[in-house]
Amino acid sequence: MSALLDRLAGDQHLPGDDFGAIRRRAQQALMQHGFPDLKTEDWKYTPLKLLEKREFNADTTGGAALPGLPFEATVLHFDNGCLDLEGLKLPEGLRIEPIGADSLEQVEYGDRADAFAWLNLARFQQGLRLVIESDQDRPVVLATTTNEGFAAAVHPRLEIEVAEGASATLIDYQQDAGAGLINRVVDVELAKGAKLNHVIRRGGGDSAWIERSVVNVSDDADYRVHVLDCGGRLTRQDLSVQLMAEGANGEIDGIGLVNTRQHIDYHTAIDHTVGHTSSRESFRLLGDGSGVGVFNGRIHIHKDADDSHSDLETANLLLSEHARINTKPELEIYAEEVTASHGATIGQLDDDAMFYLRSRGIPADEAGALLKYGFAAAPLEGQATEPVREWLLGQLREVL
Q1: Which of 41-55, 102-116, 179-193, 371-385 shows the lowest per-residue confidence on average (mean pLDDT)?
Q2: What are the distances in angstroms from CA 234 to CA 158, 189, 226, 237?
Q3: For 252-300, what is each residue's pLDDT tens digit?
Q4: What is the helix (H) or strand (E) element at residue 120, kind and residue range?
Q5: Helices 20-33, 115-123: crossing angle, 10 deg rounding
Q6: Are 327 and 316 contacting, i.e. CB atoms less than 8 angstroms apart?
Q7: Quick check: pTM over 0.90?
Q8: What is the CA 288 to chain-centroid distance, rounded?
Q9: Which is it for strands 127-132 and 249-258: parallel, antiparallel or unpaired?
Q10: What is the CB-side half-sphere exposure of residue 258 using CA atoms within 13 A?
């Protein structure tokens, strides 16, 4: 047994509940495959030594403060990864309920590259389904926070369903102050004509945040996500968008900031499984100090998915000689009549622009912040909800 397997899954005692058979199957798969290492292609830039050295306790006592938001919102507070359902009141057209065992019986994952998903299935403490049945007038915020004493390994599991024709702005606010592990799995289903404006704002302390999200987009449905990652000790996000029927659209815009003792790793995939679908992705990384940023974006246009259209670009800034950025855009095309493009750049701050600003009396730090903001803000400026867009840009300015 590897040190990491022993650390996270060595205890064979699984929670005793209605999910017993599912948990045992997941535990068996995890023990069979083991966790990924640097020889596992999809994880070769994600070092897990940090987790091997940690002692995780079982204390998930909450107490972290809710974020202050400059707009009215429906807030669901996942304190140290758990949501208190008692007394929770939601607006019309929005409900949340426990996941039943029947919905997980057919869940399958792959080999060791999916080890954390198996771990989640074996040991999730709370499985919930959020159903958006009708249009939501104000943003729905899933606020996951941890306090300074957080040193547990938690495995939240969430299903999100957006009903036919419904639309909503959903904000994943993730603020860490501890030194534990949050291993989250999120499955999203958009029914016909549904629209989900998804925002992920992430930042934190020393915890490892590992998340796997799969989004299924039905006919004429529209999924758009904006990511602002302000950096963390270890962040790994796998995001897969599946365009399942004609008229489906998927868009990803993201910015990640990484500094000393931080590592963020984004693996995204958009699959055009049928034709007459469209997608777009733009992701940027800023690396400073000795931080490490990773982006791997893949567009996959399946056989016979004719009349599919996609564009993928990633641009990155290295702000110090010790920072590292690994970026890899991929196109896989197995259909004939499609349009698709991709590109990647890695550069540094423009010396001419810096000289111009300095020549007008702007201090070097302020000039650098202006240039970094100008570069980093672009993926967020397309956020459709104005108060949310201004909030995200304000958060970005604070970090820079």
Answers
A1: 41-55
A2: 21, 28, 20, 10
A3: 999 999 999 999 999 999 999 999 999 999 999 999 999 999 999 999 9
A4: helix 115-123
A5: 150
A6: yes
A7: yes
A8: 21
A9: unpaired
A10: 30
